[in-house]
User: What shape does this take?
Amino acid sequence: MHPLPQALAALALLCAATAQAALPVGAAAPVFQTQAAVAGKAFDFDLTAALKKGPVVLYFFPKAFTQGCTMEAHAFAEATPRFAAMGATVVGMSHDDIATLQRFSTEACRDQFAVASDPKAQTIKAYDAAAAANPERADRISYVIGQDGKIKFTHIGSDPEAHVQKTEAAVKQLQAAKQ
Assistant: This one.
């Protein structure tokens, strides 16, 4: 075998071994309760209660106040009224402590949606959203969870804007299917 195909095959195996996993569409979304913040105020977030109101867009982000995570929060803040018009709740989640997320909810999320704290990374791990390089931190993964508690859409990627665009399109499809 020529060295180049061997190298490509080895690289493909390495990438497959380190590729980020995610819960598949159709899987049951792990239920959770945790502290969250919106508009600087802490509260107890309960996924089961949120799903009674409509679908939930749950997006995981690595760390509050970093460039990509702040850009993503701004984009979700701008889109939150559109999600709300479709009956969907947006919630971001990271390993950051609640005090940090209280500030982030105002400064980056612009008081538009909740950000949830998962300091022990229990929910991050349950959603298969742990970063390969640091399993205590979340990777950039977004889910749309239907009212039936099932994963309807998953998106993994480093482009913060794509998470908003793709989850919004998935919620639109979900709403269209209900009609």
The mean pLDDT is 90. The beta strands are 33-38, 41-46, 56-60, 89-94, 114-117, 141-145, 151-156.
